[in-house]
Each structure stands twice: as C-alpha cells, then as structure tokens.
Design a protein that fits this description.
The complex is a heterodimer of chains A (346) and B (504). By secondary structure, chain A is mostly helical. Chain A contains 15 helices and 2 strands. Chain B is α/β, with parallel strands linked by helices and 504 residues long. Classes of the chains: A mainly alpha (346), B alpha/beta (504).
Chain lengths: 346, 504
C-alpha cells in the first residue's frame, strides 16, 4: 500500500464554473423573458402602436399556434429525435377540418377537434413506426413524411380553398374571440403549455424521454423501453400538430394546400431558442413556448419599426445560432473542469 | 468471514462465451458469499469484463450455470439481472448527464404519489438518506453533468442500495479515482460488507485487492486459475498465476543495427492522460510501451502523432521539434500511426482496398491534382504483394478482408510513405495466430531497414519477443524501463500494476 500512498493527493481547487453553467441553464426561461421585455420596450418606444391591444392580441394568437406545435416538437427533440413533418401535418389537418365542415356544416366542436387530432395521430403513428421499427433516423423519416403528407394534401385539395364563410361562426370565434382582452388561442396554448410542462416534470414516462435523449445506451441499460417511448413522442407530436391544424383554421379562416408550409422551421427554431438541447435530454415545454412568443414578437416588432420583414428570417436564424452556440459554450466550459479534476491523480 | 454452509449469494460455474471465433471466456468460475469482498484479477483479455457482463445480463453465456442463492438463473437483459439483486458499478458509470442526481438514482422506479405522479419530495429525501448512510455529501438536486467519476460511482452505489441489491460488482472502480476518493470508496465497500452484501471487486491494482478482499479469484486467458483466501496468497503468487504461461517462440526478431535517435520525447505531459513521459527511439530499434489498459499508452501515441495536444514537454523527430496537435506536421516529419482501432481509425471501411492503401500517399500518386485510377491500382498492387495480402480483388471494400489482412492494409498505407518513425498500437489485436506472426515479421524487417518502431502492446509475450527496450506505464507515468535482456513477465506485470521494485 505504501507505494501509491506516497502519491500526492494534490487536488486543484475545484472550479465552480459548471455550477455557474447549471444556473445559467436553469434560468434560460428567465433570459428569454428578459429578451422579450427588451424587444417590447424597444419597439414601443419607437412606435407606441406596438403595444396597442390589437397588435398584442395578434402577436399572442400567432405565437399560440407555434407554441402548440412546439409542445410536441419539444417532446420529440428531448428524445434526441426531430419531427420535421409538423407543418405538413398541420396543413393536412386544417384542410381536413375545413372539408369536414363543408360536408357536415353542423358537426359539433368536440368532433371537429377529435377528427383533427386523429389526422395528426395517424401521421405521428407513421413517423414513430418507421423511426422505431425500421430504425431510420428521424431526420430522414420526417423529411420524407413532410413531403409525402404535403403531397397528399395537395392532391386532395387541388386548387380548392375552404373559406371562412363555409365555416360556422362558433368555430371562427375560437380564432378571434377574447376573454378580458386575451385571445382564446392564447388561453388554449397557455393551458396546454402549463399542462405539458407539469406532465413533463411529474410522470415517469416523461422522465424517460429525458433519460433517452440524455444517453440512449444508458437508457436501454436502465431498462427503459426506448422504442415505445420514442414512438409515443412522435404520436404525441402528431396528435398535437393535428389539433393545431384545427386551431390554425379557426385563426386564419381559409385553408388551401399550402397551409403551414415552413412551420417546421419556425417551430424548431422556437424550441431551440427556448433552451431545448438540439441533441436531447434537456429543456422545457415552457421554454419552447416562450421561444415561440419571442420569435413572434420580434417579427411583429420589426414590422412596426419599419424594418423589412426579410430581416425577420435573418434575425430568427441569428437567434438560433446564438442559442446553440450558448449551449456549446457551456458544454465546452464544463469539459475542462472535468478533465482537470480527473487528472489530479496524475 | 463467509459461512460455507449457506449457499453462496451468487455462483457462476464453468461459464463460456465466444464472440465469433474469439473465445472471450472459456471457463468462468466465481462464487460470492454474503459479507465478503471478493477480488477478481487477471491480465488484459483474461475474461474479467466478459464475466462481469454475464453477471450484468449484458451477455448470455454459451454454456455454464449461474445461480442466485442456490437457484439457477438465466438473464436475458440488464433488467433481469437487476431484479435478481445484482448491481454493477462500471469503471465509467453511465449516468444521464441531464437528469438530477436523485433522478439518476431512481430512474424508472421513481416513488409515486396519487395519479402515478412522481413524488419528487420523497425521491429527494430518500436519495439524501442513502447518501447519509454512505456518509457522503452530494446534492440530490444537482444535475449529473460535471460530477467527478468518483461521485458518479457513488450515485451508482446509491442506486444499488435503493434497489436492495445484494450482490454489488465493481468493475475497476478505482481506476479513475484520487487517493482520497479511493479511501472513501474502501470505507463504503467495508460498510456494504458489514450490511451482508457480497462485493465482487475487479481491479488490476493488487495492493487494493490485498487491502480489502477476503478472497481472490485469478483468471488467465478466459479461464479460472485459482480462488483462495487472501491470507494464503502473496503479491508474487498472484502475479505468477496471472501471467504463468509458456513463452512461445513465435517471434522472428531480427537483430538490427541501431542508428541515431529518430524520435525523442521529452517530459511530455497531457493533463488527465499522462505525466512526464520521456524516451528515445533509435533507428532500427523497436521500443515497446507496456502497461495495462488505461495506463495512458495510446494517449502518448496520439499526442506524438498530433491527434491530441500536449500540455507540456516536447517531441522531436529527426532533430526537428513537432508542433502540438498537428497530424499533418507529424506525417510530414515522417511519423506514421497504426491505431488501436483499425475499423474506426485506421481504415475507411467502405473504401476499396486500393484506395485505402493509397490514402496516405496521394501526394505521390496524384498527377496535377487528379488521382489516376491506374496509378492508384499499380501502387496498391505493389504493396499488396510486398505484404503478402490475401484478397480477391483490389476494388473490393476493405471490410471484406479478415482482421489480419485489414491490419496489413493499414501497415501498407503507412509503409508506402516510407516513415522514419512508425507507431503501432496493439498491432496484433484480434488477429489469428498465423497472420500475427507475419505482422511481427514485418515489424522486425522494418526495424532492420532502419525505421524507429514504437510498439504499444498488451500482450506480454509480444512485448518480450519483439522489443529491444520496454517502457512500462502505470497511471500515466513511466514506472520502469527494461532492456530486452532484463525483462520478464513478472517484472513487467509488477511495474504495470504499480508495485515499485524496491531494488530498482
């Protein structure tokens, strides 16, 4: 024993840098709220119309759709997968909802939402099955279904359009109605985000999503049914995107074959800006929803301060890169602390 | 100590396991009694890991019998092993970095309250209770990312205790720990023993085995060699049991003329990997880096070749200093590296044989920026002939070759550059005996032609048979240097397990 005993136990003072990193990550939501406040105050100073009731309502309603989609996308990304098909699912579900009303004008609201959800679930089941059974990377699978679903949607809709006049007022009111000035859509999205945030914290299945994304082989070793959990994540994402399709139709009133084109990128950007790690394992639904709100607010702010809307995409892109760079930076800062600590044995 | 009348908590009899043609375990025997710490020792490749993985439910044995408290058990997966009360603490634990410590302990079996919601408060309280029991301070709410290896092991041990595991297997748990952490772990192992657990302690540090184990099992070449009470053994007798095999005269060592120093490594240090490593390799010399897995040998090679940066020291090739972290410079100075993992690092498995051979010599094959197929093929055919490569067509992807012939392709790739220094990392791992001898002959010829060869090998007969000088690394430091004439398996093994010869 004497031989190793002589080895110094000189240990370098343990750096607290990763504790700082932890705090930063935990308060990611706070950072977004701060950014949100800055944008709102800045835009309001330039143009007071920005904080007018109608404009705020518009921002909230627009963000609500993306926030809904972001709930499902967050779940999928947390499992270290991605769902690129959400925009197409939203599109086909919105069109299905419209067609349902055209053929059955008196169908009740719950049935409408069940049908919309069902359309989305079907898409999610296909995505989930191909990813988990055929073991094809989800990036490829959902890129494929993005085009397939859009193609089906296009073939089905042709050049047709469903207008607000073909939809009952009770349905349209979901899109424009407000309670105490707050749009129904914002309330729907808010409640959904609150439920999802709580559920993601409180159920074993939800914690399994995090474990899977954090370290897939370890999840398998820990006895987590990885395949069925990933499948579930895609089904949830599909179902939520289906519901979002009906909500989308209520907001915009008319639907054709190109509803929701490109939404997948807005959603993924919102999720990543909202602090969900692109390689899974961490992040919250609340953060993703705040990300959606921030992006929509910036979009609107640029509009009122008369900056070309072309810049919106550029700024969204810059935010996305900044968010990922931020995460990388933290990871890189943690790594040397670990390495040095291990080396203290020398 | 152990009550010999009661059935052992766990007993594995005559377990066998093969992977393809490789017999990883031919006769695995171990029995663990309540309240004992049982040491398991053996050289690299002795079958310890395979045995541990059988207990873990990761591998299913091809033959043999496993029983838990006298009842036969068959594990198809890790879950069943856990359910049978076996917990494995691996050298590098597999925690979920994004989950909190408490969540890691209870993953998949979180305490629930109404509506199947996770009872976070109870989870944290129980985690804290287990840590108190272990006498350690660890915040259950902190995420696992950034925990030291020692703390990660503690989380795994806490997990084992919360699942009421009776058998705890620790696979080289101390390899990455500091002295104080090892002491703390020993305290915990003693506490586990007092609770009536059985601990299987796999380690290659013999002092540790003798310090905490009541019984020791020695394995060699996939076979059980002996199991005895620790008092009946000495370090010497254990080492003899670990290595005790006949030297085979397979090694066609050609005496080469030594020339000037080609590779000079001076006080090279990379934090966390190796410290203060100095040596020289002359023209025509084969120098072996011996030591156990994880001693830092491959890391030294990677640093010399420029894959990893070094923190201090210098490397000179042919009198010129190399820049840290630049494989291109190292190659330019005449260094070649045949890596340990040829599938991942040595070859592009989907490329054809000819493209792999020519890969490092594109400068010579290339004409005005274009690589003519014909020239590439002639080049490859020439080298295939010289190395007696067995192939059907040069255009076949390289994965169609056997392991030994794949290794020849890697060698050809570097030899074609006419290196002055060739580093070979485990050159004959996973290669059949016949091709092994050919690789040895090749290395020997190379040295004879004036190449400085630095060979990393875990096979002691290979080291003793091939090397002119042998440096032994232990935990990132050179513990001994042997001239060819002075080296014996026992002496190398002692140095590799950190036992410093008093006479030295």
């Amino acid at each position: 024993m004497t031989t190793i005993a002589e080895e110094k136990a000189v240990r370098e003072p343990h750096t607290s840098s990763h504790h700082v990193a932890e705090i930063l990550l935990r308060f990611r939501e706070l950072g977004i709220v701060l950014a949100l406040v800055l944008v709102v105050v800045g835009a309001a100073i330039v143009n007071t119309n920005f904080v007018s009731l109608t404009n705020v309502q518009q921002i909230l309603s627009g963000a609500a759709i993306i926030a809904l989609l972001a709930i499902g996308e967050t779940i999928v990304i947390i499992t270290r997968n991605v769902d690129l098909s959400v925009g197409s699912v939203l599109g086909i579900s919105a069109y299905a909802t419209g067609v349902l009303y055209v053929h059955h004008p008196h169908v009740s609201l719950p049935v409408v939402f069940l049908v919309a959800c069902g359309v989305g679930l079907a898409c999610g089941i296909v995505n989930g099955a191909v990813v988990t059974i055929a073991r094809v990377p989800s990036l490829v699978v959902t890129l494929g279904t993005l085009y397939i679903i859009r193609g089906i949607d296009g073939a089905w809709a042709g050049g047709n359009q469903v207008n607000a006049s073909m939809l009952p007022t009770s349905f349209n009111r979901i899109g424009y109605g407000t309670v105490a000035g707050i749009p129904y859509l914002a309330i729907i999205a808010g409640v959904a985000v609150a439920i999802a945030t709580y559920a993601m914290r409180s159920f074993r299945t939800a914690r399994d999503f995090y474990a899977i994304g954090s370290d897939p082989p370890a999840a398998r070793l820990a006895g987590i049914p990885v395949g069925s959990r990933v499948f579930l994540a895609f089904v949830l994402s599909g179902g939520i995107a289906g519901i979002a399709g009906a909500v989308w139709l209520s907001l915009y009133g008319s639907v054709d074959a190109i509803a929701g084109v490109g939404y997948e990128f807005q959603v993924i950007t919102a999720v990543v800006v909202g602090g969900v790690a692109i390689f899974g394992g961490s992040g919250t639904v609340l953060g993703a929803a705040l990300g959606a709100l921030l992006l929509n607010t910036i979009n609107s702010a640029l509009d009122v301060v008369n900056i070309s809307s072309f810049w919106t995409s550029a700024i969204a892109g810059a935010l996305l890169i900044a968010a990922i760079a931020f995460d990388r930076l933290i990871a890189v800062r943690v790594a040397p602390a670990l390495r040095t600590r291990r080396s203290s044995r020398g | 100590m152990s009550n010999e009348l009661a059935p052992p908590l766990l007993s594995l009899e005559h377990a066998e396991k093969s992977f393809g043609a490789v017999h990883a375990l031919e006769d695995g025997i171990v029995d663990l009694y309540a309240g004992e710490v049982h040491g398991l020792v053996g050289e690299n490749g002795a079958g310890k890991s395979t045995l541990v993985k059988i207990l873990a439910g990761v591998h299913r044995p091809d033959a043999g019998r496993l029983s838990i408290e006298g009842v036969e058990a068959i594990f198809d997966n890790a879950k069943q092993s856990q359910a049978a009360g076996i917990a494995i603490i691996f050298q590098e634990p597999t925690l979920f970095p994004d989950l909190t410590v408490a969540e890691n302990i209870f993953v998949g079996m979180q305490p629930l309250k109404r509506f199947r919601r996770i009872d976070g408060r109870r989870m944290r309280r129980e985690a804290r209770a287990v840590f108190d029991q272990l006498g350690v301070k660890l915040d259950p709410d902190r995420v696992a990312r950034g925990l030291s290896i020692a703390d990660q092991q503690l989380v795994e041990i806490a997990k084992a205790l919360t699942t009421n595991a009776r058998v705890i297997v620790m696979d080289e748990p101390t390899a990455a720990l500091t002295m104080t952490e090892v002491d703390r772990l020993f305290g915990i192992v003693a506490a586990l023993r007092a609770r009536g657990n059985a601990v299987l302690f796999v380690s290659h540090r013999l002092e540790e085995i003798f310090a905490i184990c009541q019984r020791v099992t020695v394995m060699r070449d996939g076979r059980h060699i002996l199991t005895r009470a620790t008092e009946e053994l000495t370090v010497q007798s254990v080492i003899r049991a670990m290595v005790g095999r006949d030297m085979d005269a397979l090694f066609p060592k050609v005496e080469a003329e030594r020339g000037e120093v080609v590779l000079k490594v001076d006080r090279l240090t990379r934090e966390g990997a190796f410290t203060d490593v100095s040596f020289e390799v002359r023209r025509g010399e084969i120098v072996a880096l011996a030591g156990l897995v994880g001693a830092g040998r491959s890391e030294v090679a990677r640093a010399i070749f420029g894959i990893d940066r070094w923190d201090a020291g210098s490397v000179e090739v042919g009198g010129r200093r190399l820049k840290p972290g630049s494989p291109t410079r190292a190659m330019g100075a005449g260094v070649g590296l045949v890596p340990e993992d040829r599938r991942q690092q040595g070859l592009v498995m989907d490329f054809s044989i000819e493209r792999n051979v020519a890969l490092a010599s594109l400068d010579t094959v290339r004409r005005a920026g274009v690589i003519p197929r014909g020239a590439e093929r002639r080049f490859a055919r020439d080298w295939a002939l010289r190395l007696q490569l067995k192939y059907s067509r040069l255009t076949n992807p390289v994965w169609t070759l056997s392991g030994g012939n794949q290794q020849k392709v890697v060698l050809a790739k570097w030899l074609a550059r006419k290196p002055s220094v060739l580093i070979v990392d485990e050159p004959t791992r996973g290669i059949d005996v016949g091709t092994k001898a050919e690789v040895h002959r090749l290395l020997s010829e190379l040295a004879a032609q004036g190449v400085a060869v630095l060979m990393i090998s875990s096979e002691l007969p290979e080291v003793l048979g091939m090397a002119d000088r042998i440096l032994v690394l232990f935990e990132g430091r050179v513990t001994r240097e042997f001239a060819r004439a002075d080296a014996t398996e026992d002496a190398i093994m002692q140095a590799a397990t950190g036992i410093v010869d008093q006479a030295a």
